[in-house]
Amino acid sequence: MGQLFGVKKEAWRYDGGRRDLLVGANGVSTKCHPIDQEMMIGLCTKQGSWKSDPTIGSTLHSIVYLGTPNLQAEVEDHVRKANPIAALLANGDVEIDLITHETTPGGALLVAVHYRNMRLDKNRVQRISTYT
């Protein structure tokens, strides 16, 4: 647990849509469990974009042929291999229930991951999403 930033009880919530920290109505950044933060960073960060650690993130952006019949399998493979998602899966910190995708007429790929944080409530399914 806490592969990116060490073992912590809470972390800043990352907003994948804005690719920034999520700020509440009071102007203060909101917090979440570190596992949830790592899932969001792994899915929503383009691998190679962090100069401090270019291995962080996913390679979903490298999928160019959005009309192939094996697109679902390709998306699932990219998500499960994302860093740190692969480590979280291997360590038993998360279980992925479902990975879905949509394509837009403009050529964007939308991806949603439904997962369980095994360090919190194992019965609660959480959803995160991103786009390329």
Please describe what this structure looks like.
The protein is an alpha+beta fold. The protein has a single domain, classed as Roll (Nuclear Transport Factor 2, Chain: A). The chain has a three-stranded antiparallel sheet with strand order 5-6-7. It starts with 10 loop residues before the first strand and ends with a strand. The N terminus is likely disordered.
Describe this structure in a few short sentences.
The protein is an alpha+beta fold and 132 residues long. It is 21% helix and 26% strand. The chain has one domain: Nuclear Transport Factor 2, Chain: A (Roll).
Q: Could you list some keywords that capture this structure?
A:
7 strands, Nuclear Transport Factor 2, Chain: A, 132 residues
Topology of helices and strands:
Layout: E1 11-12, E2 14-15, E3 20-21, E4 31-32, H1 34-44, H2 71-81, H3 85-90, E5 94-103, E6 109-117, E7 125-131
Antiparallel strand pairs: 1-4, 2-3, 5-6, 6-7
The H/E string reads: EEEEHHHEEE
- The name of the CATH architecture is Roll
Low-confidence stretches: 1-5
If helices are DSSP runs of H or I spanning 4 or more residues, what is the number of helices? 3
Helical proportion?
10-25%
Strand order of the largest sheet: 5-6-7
Q: How many strands appear in the DSSP assignment?
A: 7
Separation of termini? 27 Å
CA-atom Rg in angstroms: 15 Å
CATH class: Alpha Beta
- CATH topology, by name, is Nuclear Transport Factor 2, Chain: A
Strand content: 25-35%
Mean pLDDT over all positions: 86
What does the largest sheet look like?
Answer: 3 strands, antiparallel
Helix/strand class: alpha+beta
When the domains are counted, the total is 1
Overall 3D shape = globular
